[in-house]
């Protein structure tokens, strides 16, 4: 099947079961992430993949998150361990406050969502799927796939969500993770 073909929902289900089976055979975090990277390309050809680890502690200011890149398919341009600070934006509220998947479509949406979009746009990025990795009510990392096309197919979104859930066990929770966001009604610290 060519990478430009759209998979029918049943074909995606069969394909995903095979992919998840291969991922389940990984015996280390590095092996799992390499396998997830390959599987991500089968779901979203030409995409860029990263995982951002939430490094925020109780000592950081309220309504502010500290994120560090844990994995990058483009490590030369977007290096692992690269860090960024995020304030209380609609994107932060979606992922870190409500624990919901964020699907952004179109360069204009990405430009208004990500302050580093200029750097990403050099790669032709036009869409994103951000999946929060959760421990209880706390988002300890985000699984991010940036696409070169302006829209996602529903089966691609489902495939990326399933892949993120399968990889979550290999992503450690940062020591002392805790954050305070306006509107949060839950305890946002994680016992590690």
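^ Assign residues to that structure.
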């Amino acid at each position: 099947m060519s990478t430009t073909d759209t998979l029918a929902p049943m074909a995606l289900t069969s394909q995903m079961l095979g992919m998840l089976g291969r991922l389940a055979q990984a015996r280390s975090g590095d092996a799992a992430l390499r396998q997830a990277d390959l599987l991500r390309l089968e779901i979203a050809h030409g995409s860029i993949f990263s995982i951002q680890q939430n490094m925020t502690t109780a000592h950081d200011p309220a309504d502010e998150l500290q994120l560090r890149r844990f994995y990058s398919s483009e490590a030369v341009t977007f290096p692992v361990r690269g860090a960024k600070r995020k304030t209380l934006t609609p994107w932060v509220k979606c992922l870190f406050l409500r624990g919901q998947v964020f699907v952004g479509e179109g360069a204009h949406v990405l430009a208004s969502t990500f302050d580093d979009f200029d750097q990403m746009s050099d790669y032709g990025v036009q869409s994103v799927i951000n999946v929060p990795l959760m421990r209880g009510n706390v988002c300890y990392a985000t699984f991010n796939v940036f696409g070169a096309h302006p829209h996602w197919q529903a089966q691609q979104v489902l495939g990326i969500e399933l892949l993120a859930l399968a990889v979550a066990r290999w992503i450690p929770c940062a020591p002392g993770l805790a954050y305070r966001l306006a509107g949060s009604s839950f305890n946002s610290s994680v016992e590690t």
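Residues 1-5 have pLDDT under 50 and may be disordered.
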